[in-house]
Amino acid sequence: MPSVLPFDPPQRLVRALEAQPDAQAAATAASWLRGLPELLARWLERWELTPERVVSPGGRSSLVVLVRQADGTPAALKLVAPDGAPAPDRALRESAALARWDGLCAARLLRAEPGEGALLLERLHGEVSLRALPEAKATLEAVSVVRRLWVPAGDAGGVFETVAEHTRTEAALMRAGAPAEVRPLVDAALEAREELLGSTGDGGEPVLLHGDFRQGAVLSGGERAPWLTVGPDPLVGEAAYDLARLTRDRLHDLMASSGAASSVRRRVHKLADSLDVERERVRGWTLYRAVESGVRNLSAGARADGEMLLDFATWL
Fold this sequence. Notes:
Blueprint: H1 11-18, H2 23-34, H3 36-46, E1 50-54, E2 62-68, E3 74-80, H4 89-101, E4 109-113, E5 118-122, E6 125-129, H5 135-149, H6 163-177, H7 183-197, E7 207-209, E8 218-220, E9 227-229, E10 235-237, H8 239-247, H9 251-256, H10 260-274, H11 279-299, H12 303-314
Antiparallel strand pairs: 1-2, 2-3, 3-5, 4-5, 6-8, 7-10, 8-9
Helix pairs in contact: 6-7, 6-11, 7-11, 8-11, 10-11, 11-12
Keywords: Kinase, Transferase
GO molecular function, one term: kinase activity
Protein name: Kinase
């Protein structure tokens, strides 16, 4: 049996799972964390993998371990945490999206048991993301990657939520959890969502979206490709939705700069124009997603991050 690394789960993962929105989800997450060493050992044995190290700080919804396959080929084992819905949902969506992209600007899926939350992925250079580049260069490379991800969902389309379905649940939580002082901003975000879903503009046909596309999710691909994305939370919908998270990249740096509000508006226009997407649709989804993230952070007790996101939203 392959040796198992002695480890404590990365604290970013622990904190995220402890901040579940309800008691049942929190209990499920706690149970998963307690069983993580045994779960890791089982998948190392089943897929004949030799562990090298746990990726830290890692993500907020999964454990990633760098491994070697039986033939010595490097790979990354990803164990996906339950998401409050039936446990396999997140892993099923990710594996379906990666299979659909088949290595096109995304990490290749090598093996998968999505029903058990286990994915074996092509190993990328995780220590080098687009955030290592100057902002202008990083934006240029990000545009190149995301453009190629936007393909029809194909036969796997039924696996993914639509943007409308996904944001319906978020919108309900926003209405219920927003403090009184941010209600006007929440109302503006919800109105933007309704307007965007009620019209199509020139957004074209719905496409497969990464769902959490940002500079930190685009890693060096080494010899196979300069840059490849990881960690999708895939949806089906209009392209403008996928630019909303990218628009607020390097937010701490942006907040500390002079003329930040003008810089944000220029960034929206630049991304929209680079990808032939309506500026107003990018602005609207950026507003909605920033407010949703801000309210969610406030609800989880991360007040500084929540207030920063809401400040960012006021510039839109």
